[in-house]
UniProtKB/TrEMBL annotation:
In the N-terminal section; belongs to the NADH:flavin oxidoreductase/NADH oxidase family. CDD domains: OYE_like_FMN_family. Keywords: Flavoprotein, FMN, Iron, Iron-sulfur, Metal-binding, Oxidoreductase. GO terms for molecular function: FMN binding; iron-sulfur cluster binding; metal ion binding; oxidoreductase activity. Residues 20-334 form the NADH:flavin oxidoreductase/NADH oxidase N-terminal domain. The keyword Iron applies. PANTHER family: 2,4-DIENOYL-COA REDUCTASE, 2,4-DIENOYL-COA REDUCTASE [(2E)-ENOYL-COA-PRODUCING]. This is 2,4-dienoyl-CoA reductase-like NADH-dependent reductase (Old Yellow Enzyme family)/NADPH-dependent 2,4-dienoyl-CoA reductase/sulfur reductase-like enzyme. The keyword Iron applies. Its cofactor is FMN; [4Fe-4S] cluster. Residues 390-612 form the FAD/NAD(P)-binding domain. InterPro entries: Aldolase_TIM, FAD/NAD-bd_sf, FAD/NAD-binding_dom, NADH:flavin_oxidoreductase, OxRdtase_FMN_N.
């Protein structure tokens, strides 16, 4: 199917490669933007597409994306890895895929499926079926179930299932198919020495892959067919760049129309969904080595701005870009990439927090900065408020900023007050940490949104009841943060004990030669990592049995090993501090045993926050007062939960102000 050139944004700049159509196999993409395959856990439990998911994808198509690659789509029921994953495993999946294809075509976009089987990562607890793999090697990260080694006949039969699934997709009107040979799923398992210990014909790392390519091509002779590749597997004993290239060299590439460059495996998730610490376009150099195969290339991996996208396309690294998180955070990202430089389009940037991928096993995939997605419903706009509505939002952290924006969009006249000298609250501090550098993007965007929506921001101001009486607003949103959890221990004279925030607020920030971090939450992890990175000797003492239990695996995938492997960092978990003296702290261990540890420098507290009592905060105020963020939250104090809280509170408040 070819998309008419007239469907390309009218403001598109003719000179930009991003906007240029691309022929791929038998289809033409209207531009170079592809929504990367991204499991979202939005389907029905039987693998069928549904209205909520279709609407989500349509929104990205309407924003200008050329090709929507849906997600890793299981070709057989025992290859299903998520409860609500998309399936193409039987004919009952065809009508839903057909409806999706028709709807996306009507918006001028093409649609694709990524053919997949989970192999050893597909756990019985999810699929309800035994799991099978090249060899009986468990994937601990996926759940640890030891798979049964499939016979050679079973391998051949399973390869044929890829072909049958491909035929169903084609029957449903799917334009593009991609064979998932990456990320530690079944085909990659056959390729890898970690998971393939076979001595039969399938011991050859390319054998199963080639069988799948042959089956799919035979079943779908004219479809545009590509393959996703992990340019490195990740673990030391896995496939490196050279060995992967050598395998791909022997693949039946003559039957393919493109390669989609990605990286990583379950054991090296940081390569699949990269941390904010890694540079944008981190896989570009690897992609260049695939140019020799002469196939059009797609590139994924932190392509998070229109500029970097145009750059990799101009540099000839790839013909199209596969975008996952940037489009999840905001479909308008596509519009921004296609817009004329003279009329830039503002989009809500992904902050690379990786909450989305961390949530994948738990339910519908949400997004920290986009609180409307992953809620199991088609997003509903915040109700328009009646003319003359005014709202004061106290607190310019993520909850307050979000509430203010929603209410201003709904038509309210909004003023934000904050006692700090900058917007952002603790998120501004988090943006200074090593593993969350992109957090500043949310704050920059919020600042621009405040301006666009005419939100007044009064910094260095603490809201009082008198201020409220004088302003006489329609409502007040309090988002000034929770109460730091109090600690009560003997502290010797001269010993310094303060919260992490207090230390970070110090001007100038002088780094001690050593310090103690008392806490094991994400803030403790971040500050320990930040200080250790600057050569500070760090002692971490925390009550939890693991570091940052409230964070998902990917959110801490680099920081925790870095701390654990740093000889200048000591970590005492399931422990607490019973007393602080100059140069030492008394630590109580898991069994109640106590010992004094050398601990020069300050003790920085990260003990979390508790909700405050809302009714105590603005006595005498008659306007409705609602709380948002950690001030009222009982959920863990994460940015994601704060933004969700601000969003939900604003929607509920707006509904009362109509
Ligand atoms: C929640 C989530 C689910 C993903 N699911 C898939 C998938 O189904 N198939 C796949 O090949 N890659 C998947 N990926 C990887 C993305 O396609 C992409 O390669 C990766 O996120 C890096 O690109 P980005 O920086 O644009 O997010 C997923 C990523 C995320 C964040
Ligand atoms: S959850 Fe975080 S990483 Fe994922 S898309 Fe949203 S902002 Fe980006």
């Amino acid at each position: 199917m070819s998309v008419p050139a007239s469907m390309v944004s009218s403001t598109a700049s003719a000179t930009r490669i991003t906007n240029a159509p691309l022929s791929l196999g038998g289809v033409t993409l209207r531009n170079r933007l592809v929504s990367a395959p991204m499991e979202r856990n939005y389907c029905e439990p039987n693998g069928h597409m549904n209205d909520v998911y279709q609407e989500y994808l349509l929104e990205r198509a309407r924003a200008g994306v050329a090709l929507i690659m849906t997600e890793a789509t299981y070709v057989r029921a025992d290859g299903k890895g998520r409860t609500h994953q998309l399936g193409a495993h039987d004919d009952s999946c065809i009508p839903g895929l057909r409806r999706l294809a028709d709807a996306l075509h009507a918006e001028g976009a093409l649609v694709g499926c990524e053919l997949n089987h989970g192999g050893r990562t597909a756990q019985t607890a999810v699929s309800g079926l035994p799991n099978i793999a090249p060899s009986p090697v468990a994937c601990e990260v996926a759940g640890g179930q030891v798979p049964r080694e499939m016979t050679a006949d079973e391998a051949r039969e399973l390869a044929a299932e890829y072909g049958r699934a491909a035929a169903r997709c084609v029957e449903a009107g799917i334009d593009v198919l991609s064979i998932h040979a990456a990320h530690g799923y079944l085909i990659h398992q056959f390729m890898s020495p970690i998971s393939n210990h076979r001595t039969d014909e399938f011991g050859d790392p390319v054998a199963f892959l080639n069988l799948v390519i042959d089956e799919v091509r035979a079943a779908a002779p004219t479809v545009t067919l590509g393959m996703r590749v992990s340019v490195v597997e990740g673990p030391d004993d896995g496939l490196d760049a050279e060995t992967t290239l050598a395998i791909i060299e022997r693949a039946h590439l003559n039957k393919l129309d493109f390669l989609d460059i990605s990286a990583g495996s379950y054991e090296a998730g940081e390569w699949i969904v990269q941390s904010g610490e890694w540079k944008p376009g981190v896989l570009a150099d690897y992609a260049l080595r695939y140019r020799k195969f002469g196939l059009p290339l797609g590139l994924a991996g932190r392509l998070n701005s229109p500029e970097i996208i145009e750059q990799v396309l101009t540099d000839g690294v790839a013909e199209f870009v596969s975008l996952a998180r940037a489009l999840h955070a905001d479909p308008l990202f596509a519009t921004a990439c296609l817009a004329d430089a003279a009329e830039p389009v503002r989009y809500r940037p992904c902050i690379a927090c990786n909450v989305c991928i961390d949530n994948l096993g738990d339910g519908p995939v949400g997004c920290t900065v986009n609180p409307a997605v992953g809620r199991g419903r088609v997003p509903v706009a915040t109700p328009t408020v009646r003319p003359g509505t005014s709202v004061i939002v106290a607190g310019a952290g993520p909850a307050g900023l979000t509430a203010a924006r929603e209410l201003a969009q709904a038509g309210a006249d909004v003023t934000i007050v904050d006692r700090g000298s900058r917007i952002g609250g603790n998120m501004e501090l988090a943006a200074q940490m090593k593993s969350t550098p992109d957090f500043h993007r949310f704050l920059d965007w919020s600042e621009e949104e405040n301006e666009r929506l005419g939100i007044r921001v009064e910094l260095g101001t603490t809201l009082t009841s008198e201020d409220v009486a004088e302003a006489d607003p329609s409502a007040v949103v309090l988002a000034t943060g929770g109460e730091p959890t109090p600690v009560s221990i003997p502290v010797a004279q001269g010993a310094e004990v303060m919260t992490v925030q207090q230390w970070l607020d110090r001007v100038p920030r002088v780094f001690p030669s050593a310090c103690t971090v008392w806490g094991s939450d994400a803030v403790a992890m971040q500050i320990a990592d930040y200080l250790a990175d600057r050569g500070v000797e760090v002692l971490v003492v925390g009550a939890d049995a693991q570091i940052a239990p409230e964070s998902g695996r990917r959110a801490k995938i680099l920081a925790v090993p870095r701390l654990e492997q740093n000889p200048h960092v000591r970590i005492r978990l399931s422990s607490t501090i019973a007393a602080v003296e100059l140069g030492r702290v008394l630590v109580t261990g898991p069994g109640g045993e106590q010992d004094w540890l050398d601990a020069a420098g300050p003790v920085l507290l990260s003990q979390g926050v508790q909700p405050r009592v809302l009714s105590h905060l603005l006595p005498g105020v008659t306007a409705p007062v609602v709380g948002a963020g950690t001030l009222v939250m009982t959920a863990p104090a994460t940015v994601r939960n704060s933004i969700l809280s601000g969003y939900d509170v604003a929607q509920e408040l707006a509904a009362t102000l109509r």
